[in-house]
Design a protein that fits this description.
293 residues, alpha/beta, Rossmann fold, 2 domains, six-stranded parallel β-sheet, three-stranded parallel β-sheet, 10 helices, 39% helix, binds NADPH dihydro-nicotinamide-adenine-dinucleotide phosphate
């Protein structure tokens, strides 16, 4: 292995410790505990796991969490009504509506109902719009892309003037990651399922963020020597040697790319831990905004 390993677990732990220290300082100054409300609609097992780990993180950092569950049959008005009540609740600083929502609900309208001062997931159309506009600043940016950029900066990777390639253009990862890179003055190419000659485009990248959900698709000979590689993908593949018969891999073939890249995130233990860490950081920030700080 020639690439430096980007230790997302250690970097995320530091972000969480810093957030916990800020919470402790707020409490010592007689300020209220920052609070995060989670809204889970339906019974999606993966969403249940994500929500409970976010609530656990709040408890570990000394913050309040308020869990709200609605049945999969909840109406648009019921979900938006809950969001409006949370907007008005002073104990709630951040509102996280776990995605995806059941298909009969209008996700954009639900996200748009969240007060932008409490939009700790950064998906409110106004926050995303500001992210895309020169000279405007969003109050919050989406947690996974924020975590990707944070990792690159912690590794001392120069983003200004670099050629960055983002694989994937989803609303939650690819597109906001690309917008964040543009704000860092990178020259950004966004790839998707219709991109021609993907290996040729990826080979131009000084910085690569892969978020396509295709197991180990990015091979060693796609990567420019010395490139910084952030692998967002989480894919479960069969592995008869693993205790459960499966294991997690990213969108990047780690075994090949580790011998070419300058630095690389592992899966698991790379971007994954950053998402909740950045959510905690955003929630502390929301609490400070509510206090007028
Ligand atoms: P989506 O399915 O929403 O988006 C996938 C994107 O990849 C789309 O833009 C799609 O293109 C593109 N794509 C798909 N196949 C190809 C291909 N063969 N060649 C080029 N582009 C392709 O996924 P998400 O953005 O939600 O997630 C991506 C990955 O990141 C998943 O593995 C997910 O599990 C993981 N993830 C990890 C998180 C973490 O905390 N670490 C958080 C969120 C996601 P098109 O637009 O043309 O369809």
């Amino acid at each position: 292995m020639t690439a430096q390993l980007i230790d997302g677990k250690a970097i995320a732990l530091k972000v969480r410790q810093d957030a916990a220290a800020e919470v402790a300082a707020m409490l010592a100054a007689g300020k209220p505990k920052p609070g995060l409300a989670t809204v889970l609609v339906g019974e999606n097992p993966a969403s249940q796991v994500y929500v409970s780990s976010k609530q656990k993180a709040c408890a570990e950092l000394g913050m309040e969490s308020f869990g709200y569950k609605l049945p999969a049959s909840a109406t648009q008005e019921e979900v938006e009504g809950l969001v409006r009540n949370l907007n008005a609740d002073p104990k709630v600083n951040g509102i996280l509506v776990q995605l995806p929502l059941p298909s009969h609900l209008d996700e954009e309208k639900v996200l748009g109902a969240i007060s932008i001062e409490k939009d700790v997931d950064g998906f409110h159309p106004l926050n995303i719009g500001r992210l895309a506009q020169k000279g405007r600043d969003p109050l919050f940016v989406p947690c996974t892309p924020f975590g990707c950029i944070f990792l690159l900066e912690q590794m001392g990777v120069t983003l200004e003037g670099c050629n960055a390639v983002v694989l994937g253009r989803s609303n939650i990862v690819g597109m906001p990651a690309a917008l964040l890179l543009v704000r860092k003055n990178a020259t950004v190419t966004i790839c998707h399922s219709k991109t021609k000659d993907l290996p040729g485009v990826v080979r131009q990248a000084d910085v690569l963020i892969a978020a396509i959900g295709k197991a180990e698709m990015v091979r060693g000979d796609w990567v420019k020597p010395g490139a910084a590689v952030i692998d967002v993908g989480i894919n479960r593949i069969e592995d008869l040697n693993a205790p459960k018969g499966t294991r997690l891999v990213g969108d990047v073939c780690f075994d090949e790319v580790k011998d070419v890249a300058g630095c690389i995130t592992p899966v698991p233990g790379g971007v994954g831990p950053m998402t909740i860490a950045m959510l905690m950081r955003n929630t502390v920030r929301a609490a400070k905004i509510a206090l007028g700080e």
